[in-house]
Amino acid sequence: MESMNGRMETKMSDKAKKGTLYGVSTGPGDPELMTIKAAKCIKNCHVIAAPRTRGKNSMALDIVNEIMEEDLKDKEICYLDFTMSKDRKVLHKAHEEQAKLIEKYLETGEDVAMLNIGDTSLYSTFSYIRDI
Q1: What sign has the CA pseudo-torsion 123, 22, 81, 27?
Q2: How buried is residue 7: exposed, middle or buried, by Cβ count under 10 Å (0-12/13-18/19+)?
Q3: Backbone torsions φ then ψ of 101, nearest 5 degrees
Q4: Where are the beta strands (DSSP E) in 1-121?
Q5: Deepest of 9, 35, 104, 115, by most Cβ within 10 A of its Cβ?
Q6: Consecutive 10-residue runs of the chain (132 residues): their mean pLDDT?
Q7: Which element (helix H / strand E) includes 125?
Q8: Phi-psi bin for 47: left (phi > 0), alpha (psi -120 to 50), beta?
Q9: 102: closest CA among 76, 84, 64, 123?
Q10: Alpha-carbon gap, residue 88 to 43, rounded angstroms
Q11: What is the pTM of this model?
Q12: Cα–Cα distance between 8 and 83 in angstroms, integer?
């Protein structure tokens, strides 16, 4: 398609569609307090990014699994290992590494739901990944 200024413009459909990263709150801890909107987002995303510390279980994923076990069976779980360091350089490097794991899915057009306990906009691992 040619624009009015004579340059060629590419339609969005001509480019590979990238996936969307969603920050999904699992609520304050009680699985029954997770919102319907959060559950719908999890159902619609093929990839679930589940933060954890020290390679242990993901509390956020445990909350989702308690009420959505059937919905998770066909999902790909991308575990994100976060450090609890107070060193900002160490933290930023760890966040960049985890963002790269998610980026691989987004680049192939997969939507990713990144789980988060509590509000995704306040001091959450999601906000650090989103910014990267």
Answers
A1: positive
A2: exposed
A3: -60, -45
A4: 21-25, 47-53, 76-82, 112-116
A5: 115
A6: 40 69 94 96 97 84 95 95 90 95 97 93 85 91
A7: helix 125-131
A8: beta
A9: 76
A10: 34
A11: 0.83
A12: 47
